[in-house]
From TrEMBL:
SMART domains: AAA. It comes from Photobacterium gaetbulicola Gung47. NCBIfam families: PhnT2. Gene3D superfamilies: 2.40.50.100, P-loop containing nucleotide triphosphate hydrolases. SUPFAM superfamilies: MOP-like, P-loop containing nucleoside triphosphate hydrolases. This is ABC-type spermidine/putrescine transport system, ATPase component. Keywords: ATP-binding, Cell inner membrane, Cell membrane, Membrane, Nucleotide-binding, Translocase, Transport. InterPro entries: AAA+_ATPase (IPR003593), ABC_SmlMolc_Importer (IPR050093), ABC_transporter-like_ATP-bd (IPR003439), ABC_transporter-like_CS (IPR017871), AminoethylPonate_ABC_PhnT2 (IPR017666), Mo/tungstate-bd_C_term_dom (IPR008995), OB_MalK-like (IPR040582), P-loop_NTPase (IPR027417). GO terms for molecular function: ATP binding; ATP hydrolysis activity. GO terms for biological process: quaternary ammonium group transport.
């Protein structure tokens, strides 16, 4: 695939603080990439370095065939949408969208045709004469998107564009942005701290922490094969189960001995087994297997298509709470109730192994 944006060894310091530490990344033409991570991980700083709003301290950024590392923002080819919409309250919707076009010296017919086109695309064909305060938050964010796209930029940058909206609007706009991005084929980078948003929208996710990239991959790769404990913990739900390797072929979890999930583990090692709630399974009452261990059910949370059971691991690690997701269709057969003891089976294929913290 053709690389459209190349980031090479980019660092950013603010005095003694390192916000970005030697970041290298290739983004392909037409790709939708999410920078994902907790507050302060460097994702917005990297987006601002790409836009020229915060210049990198060192390294190199190339967009297309042009080096842009130290160019002023107006000399770069991008459109940007912020969390706060940043619309001019004293201008109509049409004037907000057309501002950049007029600044480029486009004639009135071109401007009016372009504005009309984008109002149709964002589903607000009759709102050109309205002012921003007459629109809902979701509608204002669509106008901000149309303003960014009206200049036909080579790169679209989205800085937490949905975080100020309520859940239903956010979900709808998420689909709209993704559909529009695919339709236009525009290379897009979105900053978010919302893992669901990143998993649903991105072609690839860049997981960041403390100014470095922890992992780059498709949503499936990030979710199914986390490269570090941080990624496993940050993306989706993950149970971390303390275990010790007691022999050449067995581990101990609580007071239970189970087969070793990985041949590379050595006797005496202390590890944490990472298992998603959907990869743990309750056995029927009274049943156990070689790969199971006992838990006591503390809470049952109804989640629509499944019930999440919060369980206490029996044995030495009394405080460890495990989450097990049970599909509704299995619930009746299992007869789960608070306070009951059940055996939980773990699958070797879905077990991730991390060094004990």
């Amino acid at each position: 695939m053709e690389t459209y944006l190349k980031i090479e060894n980019v660092s950013k310091q603010y005095g003694q603080f390192t916000a970005l530490n030697d970041i290298s990344l290739d983004i392909h033409k037409g790709e939708f990439v999410c920078f994902l991570g907790p507050s302060g991980c460097g994702k917005t700083t990297l987006l601002r370095a790409i836009a020229g709003l915060d210049l990198a301290s060192s390294g190199k950024i190339t967009q297309g065939d042009k080096e842009t590392t130290f160019l002023a923002p107006e000399k770069r080819d991008f459109g940007i949408v912020f969390q706060s919409y940043a619309l001019f309250p004293n201008l109509t919707v049409a004037d907000n969208i057309s501002l950049g076009l007029r600044n480029q010296g486009k004639d009135n017919k071109t401007v009016n045709d372009t504005v009309s086109h984008w109002l149709n695309v964002i589903g607000l064909p009759d709102s050109g004469g309205k002012y921003p305060n007459q629109l809902s938050g979701g509608q204002q964010q669509r106008v901000a998107l149309a303003r960014a796209l009206s200049l036909s930029p080579g790169l679209l940058l989205l800085d937490e564009p949905l975080s100020a909206l309520d859940a239903k609007v956010r979900s709808h706009l998420r689909e709209e942005i993704r559909r529009l991005q695919r339709q236009l084929g525009i290379t897009t980078i979105m900053v978010t701290h919302d893992q669901d948003e990143a998993l649903a929208m991105a072609d690839r996710i860049v997981v960041m922490n403390h100014g470095v990239i922890e992992q780059v991959g498709t949503p499936q790769e990030i979710y199914q094969n986390p490269a570090s404990r941080f990624v496993a913990d940050f993306v989706g739900n993950m149970n971390f189960i303390p275990a010790s390797v007691v022999s050449d072929n067995q581990i101990r979890i609580g007071e239970s001995l189970l087969p070793k999930p990985c041949d590379a583990l050595e006797r005496g090692q202390q590890v944490e087994l990472g298992l998603r709630p959907e990869d743990l399974h309750f056995l029927e009452i009274g049943k156990k297997s070689d790969s199971s261990f006992p838990v006591q059910i503390e809470e049952l949370e109804f989640q629509g298509t499944f019930v999440r059971a919060e369980c206490k691991l029996q044995g030495a690690y009394q405080s460890n709470i495990l989450k097990v997701d049970v599909p509704i269709r299995e619930l009746r057969e299992l007869q789960l109730e608070r306070g009951h003891f059940h055996y939980v089976n773990m699958s070797k294929n879905h077990t991730h192994i991390f060094q004990a913290q």
